[in-house]
Design goal:
A hairpin with a 2-residue loop joins strand 2 and strand 3. The protein has two domains: 130 residues, MutM-like, N-terminal (N-terminal domain of MutM-like DNA repair proteins, Alpha-Beta Barrel); 118 residues, Orthogonal Bundle (Helicase, Ruva Protein, domain 3). It has 276 residues and is of the alpha+beta class. The strands form four sheets. The chain has a four-stranded antiparallel sheet with strand order 1-6-7-5, with helices on one face. The chain has a four-stranded antiparallel sheet with strand order 2-3-4-8. The two termini are 27 Å apart. The radius of gyration is 19 Å and the shape is globular. It is built from seven helices and twelve strands. The structure holds zinc ion.
């Protein structure tokens, strides 16, 4: 699933291509992509002929502001990606949403599994959507160590599950939660409330370093190549992962063996020798 570094990498390309352009046509090939739109017929009507004023992001949500005060939201779901191509380029399979700009560029949302979605929200609808429940963004609004410690205090859930909870902190998914915990030397099953204040400091630093590092490489394209950059290149962080997907391999820090453990139905990869 695309996480913060993949969505931010996507956002940067999308912002450069879309900001200041006007939407001339909108095509939706799969109605399921509009399931979060209160009235699906609103989507195309609210998008067409509007100028894209800015393209932001909160956690894993891409949020474009249009000049009619509509927020165009895109969530990539499990396996969605954005392709930016000239409007006359041939359509690839599963191009479920195609937004054509007056600059001659298409924003194409390719999503074989249709777990992603798009919506065009009024300010009130945005306020009523799940987006308003998101915690602070892990990249642009990362809480200070003391605040992070406070968010975890008294919690009995495993720290791994808390890092995945988008209402606490928005942006981390399974890959970068494991990477962060490895960097911070914290075992994933530890209750959040048992994380000491010095560990919260290490955790905060690890979140920042992990996200910065992953962004430098354009995020992580796994073997399925579900995630690609908008120009079709792969995100090359996969070769630099420390824990995620490395079951049975040597820990890059201590030489121990990375194991896989299921915590709250999610695979967690970690090193029992150097993560406590
Ligand atoms: Zn280790």
């Amino acid at each position: 699933m695309p996480e913060l570094p993949e969505v931010e990498t996507t956002r940067r390309s999308v912002a450069a291509a879309l900001e200041g352009s006007r939407i001339s046509q909108v095509g939706v090939a799969r109605d399921r992509m509009l399931r979060r739109q209160p009235n699906p017929a609103d989507f195309v009507r609210r998008m067409r002929n509007q100028e894209v004023v800015g393209v932001g992001r909160h956690g894993k949500f891409l949020m474009a502001n249009l000049d009619n005060d509509i927020t165009w939201v895109t969530h990539l779901g499990m396996s969605g990606r954005i392709s930016l191509v000239p409007s006359d380029a041939p359509l690839v399979a599963h191009s479920n949403v195609v937004v054509t700009l007056d600059s001659g560029i298409d924003f194409r949302f390719v999503d074989p599994r249709t777990f992603g979605f798009v919506a065009a929200y009024t300010p009130d609808e945005l306020e009523e959507s799940s987006i308003s429940q998101l915690g602070r963004d892990a990249l642009t609004d990362l809480p200070r160590s003391r605040q992070l410690h406070g968010l975890l205090a008294g919690r009995s859930a495993p720290i791994k599950a808390l890092l995945l909870d988008q209402r606490i902190l928005a942006g981390l998914g399974n890959i970068y939660a494991d990477e962060t915990l490895h960097r911070a030397k914290i075992a994933p099953h530890r209750p959040g409330g048992a994380v000491a204040s010095t560990e919260a400091t290490a955790l905060r630093r690890a979140i920042k370093e992990t996200l910065d590092h992953a962004l430098r490489y354009g995020g992580t394209s796994l073997d399925d190549l579900a995630y690609l950059l908008p120009d079709g290149r792969t995100g090359d962080y996969v070769d630099r992962l420390r824990a995620y997907g490395r079951e049975g391999e040597r820990c890059r820090r201590c030489g121990g063996t990375i194991i896989r453990e299921v915590i709250r139905q999610r695979s967690s990869f970690w090193c029992p020798q150097c993560q406590q």
